[in-house]
Design a protein that fits this description.
By secondary structure, the chain is mainly α. The protein has one domain. The protein contains three helices and no strands. Helix 1 packs antiparallel against helix 3. The longest helix is centred in the first third of the chain and has 29 residues.
């Protein structure tokens, strides 16, 4: 490999590291989106009772929220890895 090829390869790797680091910063930022000061921990037992009375379950709501989060994290990862 020539010096020019080494430099080009290093430049390519540096760009990839930058993209992956940007993705990690995006995930970190998203992880801070719902601070306890704004969204305090709910009484899950009471919430479960109220939801059951309304015809749904806390498990269904939790699964929906987790799917939303993990799909968002997956999108960030897929975009960073595809570049």
């Amino acid at each position: 490999m020539t010096d020019r090829m080494h430099v080009a390869h290093i430049h390519h790797l540096e760009q990839r590291i930058d993209r992956l680091e940007d993705a990690l910063w995006g995930i970190k930022k998203w992880s801070e989106a719902y601070p306890l000061a704004v969204f305090p921990e709910p009484d899950l037992k009471k919430a479960a009772e109220l939801l059951r009375a309304g015809g749904t379950t806390l498990d269904a709501i939790s699964a929906h929220c987790m799917r939303h989060v993990i799909e968002g994290v997956g999108k960030i990862a897929r975009e960073a890895l595809a570049e």
